[in-house]
Write a structure and sequence with these properties.
It contains ten helices and seven strands. By secondary structure, the chain is α/β, with parallel strands linked by helices.
């Protein structure tokens, strides 16, 4: 659940309810400066993502602010260039590491309140390390997806990274509850962070099929402008669903899909554009023979 704030420079900005809860808790406790440090650190983290995206020529559709960093929804064209997703994803943690290093460098300076400097350090260090967990929807998961999508395909890597996110979130949340029950000590970062991670990963997994479809639409438009197009062949057994076929289509090749029966004898041939059209008309659960019979 998120509250939409409006648009800033064409980017839709939303705030996660966990972020609002954190700010309200800080204000109610009288920690106004700490709340400002949290907001400023998050802003710097997200600004790094946006600057790198701008330098790479990638548009940002929306930005969701959470207590553990922001989730930037980038244009689908980025999925055709996984290396750019790696660069954009890692920009935020790098910025947070730099700010944590700055706080460490200023520690002991009489001009600054040491307790606020320690809080500034911990906020940015937590932002950097937490976001580097290799699971969606965190920056580490997006960077890992960018590295693996070139070999395994965008949707397949998204699904597995989302599953890792769910497992990691549940493990963190369970561990925090167990420690609280046994020792009475509350660790908010794994408790709230685990909940956020698990819920965010579920949403990423559910959206994977349709983001994959949008990704291949952009790929189709880009390849239509080329004179020479790298190609590939995919052999698919009857009964395979369109959604499964999409998982195995490469971002850099145009595919012919050879459909065979259980005895591996040829039944027919489909090309990638037919698969995409059928996805739009029949949905991801339609089988390849249904596409052949159209």
């Amino acid at each position: 659940m998120a509250l939409r704030l409006g648009r800033i420079a064409g980017v839709r900005v939303e705030v996660h309810w966990l972020f609002l809860l954190a700010l309200l808790a800080a204000a109610a406790s009288g920690y106004y400066l700490e709340a400002l440090i949290l907001v400023g650190s998050l802003a710097a983290h997200e600004l790094a993502h946006l600057i790198v995206a701008w330098l790479l020529g990638v548009d940002v559709d929306s930005l969701l602010l959470t207590p553990f960093g922001g989730v930037a929804r980038l244009e689908a064209a980025l999925e055709l260039d996984p290396q750019s997703e790696v660069s954009v994803a890692l920009a935020g943690p790098v910025q947070s590491f730099l700010l944590a290093g700055l706080a460490s460098f200023l520690m002991g300076d009489a001009l600054f309140d040491p307790s606020l400097l320690r809080f500034f350090f911990h906020v940015n260090a937590n932002l950097a390390f937490f976001n580097l967990i290799p699971a969606l929807p965190l920056d580490g998961g997006r960077a890992l997806r960018g590295l693996l999508a070139q070999r395994w395909g965008y949707r397949l890597t998204t699904v597995w990274s989302a599953r890792i996110g769910v497992l990691s979130g549940v493990a963190m949340f369970t561990a925090a509850l167990a420690i609280l029950a046994r020792t009475g000590q509350l660790f908010l970062t794994p408790l709230v962070g685990g909940l956020f991670l698990a819920l965010g990963a579920v949403a990423e997994g559910e959206e994977a099929v349709f983001r994959s479809y949008r990704h291949f639409l952009h790929k189709r438009q880009r390849m239509a402008r080329q004179r020479l197009i790298p190609g590939g062949t995919l052999v698919v057994v009857e009964g395979t669903r369109i959604g499964e076929v999409l998982e195995h289509l490469s971002a850099r090749r145009y595919h012919l899909v050879l459909v065979v029966d259980r005895a591996l004898l040829p039944v027919g041939t489909l090309h990638e554009a037919e698969i995409l059209d059928a996805f739009q008309e029949l949905g991801p659960r339609a089988t390849v023979e249904e596409v052949l019979d159209r």
